[in-house]
UniProtKB/TrEMBL annotation:
Coiled coil: none annotated. The lineage of its organism: Bacteria, Pseudomonadati, Pseudomonadota, Alphaproteobacteria, Hyphomicrobiales. This is YncE family protein. It comes from Methylobacterium soli. InterPro entries: Host-pathogen_enzymatic-act, N2O_reductase_N, WD40/YVTN_repeat-like_dom_sf, YVTN_b-propeller_repeat.
């Protein structure tokens, strides 16, 4: 049964982090400084991808059910369910919130959809197993092509392919630097991180991470890179300038998604069903907050949107 109303996910004010638990079919909020996660909202079976629109609407993909769910974070209300072809996995939202970009894991395509109706506006073939999708301010959509060992670069307006950038083995997660001059790519099977110059669209460097890097995020000041390592049960913290290892932080079991809000990073730990909170000043885990089973995707919203 789908919940169409219920306990609010959010409270007024401040940044917030939302975590989707794939096995439980829920999404929950974590507030900075909180001693526990907020109430879990049932959004339907198997949410895998998660993105936030400019108004705070959360969009979750359900690859095994051909669905995208839209949730109003402020009220905890499920707004709508959009039927999507194939296996929708990675997702991104346009800056004005009117369009969604959805990768079909099975078919190797990316679609642009109307966010309200789900109408397909355009579709393009991409590399195999499109995972993370990231949209920059220049209107380029970056796609981690896990099965093709490359990052595809699309023009978001025309949905045409502009470039293909070779990276490591099985790229899965992407993150832009705050200045958007660098794209960071976590390569799951080669256990490393590729750095791409977004101006030239050329790889600048590839550096080791832990085993099975599955998530990547940059600190707000752009000085640190954080990579979650599934099989290592850790987060690697790299200096963004020289790409040297600053710290390796133990977290929960099988860490996947990672997001940064304010002075902390938040890590979704799949097997231990919790979220690790990392202080970016001390580079230490300061809390581990239980959530529903199978936390996977995680996203930060900088500040609460007006009602």
């Amino acid at each position: 049964m789908w919940l169409t109303g219920g306990a609010a996910l959010s409270q007024q004010g401040g940044p917030a982090v939302y975590v989707a638990s794939q096995e439980a079919g829920t999404v929950a909020r974590v507030d900075p400084g909180a001693s526990a996660a907020g109430p879990a909202l049932f959004v339907g079976p198997g949410p895998a991808g998660l993105a936030a629109g400019p108004d705070g609407t959360l969009y979750l993909t359900h690859p095994d059910h051909g669905t995208v769910t839209a949730v109003e974070a402020r009220t905890g209300r499920v707004l709508r369910r959009l039927r999507v072809r194939g296996q929708p996995f990675g997702i991104a939202v346009s800056p004005d919130g009117t369009e969604l970009f959805v990768g079909d894991w099975q078919a190797g395509t990316v679609s642009r959809l109307a966010a309200e109706s789900g109408l397909v506006e355009a579709i393009v073939g991409i590399g195999r197993e499109p995972a993370a999708l990231v949209l920059d301010r220049a209107g380029r959509l970056f796609v981690a092509e896990r099965g093709s060992d490359a990052v595809g670069v699309l023009d978001a307006r025309t949905l045409t392919r502009r470039a293909s950038v070779p990276v490591g083995w099985a790229p899965f997660a992407l993150a832009l630097s705050p200045a958007q001059d660098r794209l960071y790519v976590a390569n799951v099977r080669s256990n490393d991180l590729t750095v791409i110059d977004t101006s030239s669209l050329k790889p600048l460097a590839t550096v080791p991470s832990g085993r099975s890097p599955y998530g990547v995020a940059a600190s707000p000041d752009g000085r640190l890179l954080l990579v979650s390592n599934q099989e290592s049960g850790s987060v690697s913290v790299l200096d963004a300038g020289d790409l040297t290892l600053r710290e390796r932080i133990g977290v929960g079991r099988y860490p996947e998604g990672i997001a940064v809000a304010g002075a902390h990073a938040y890590v979704a730990n799949w097997f231990s069903a919790d979220v690790s909170v990392i202080d970016l000043a001390t580079l230490r885990e300061t809390a581990r907050l239980p959530v529903a089973e199978g936390p996977r995707a995680i996203v930060a919203i900088p500040a609460e949107m007006p009602p």
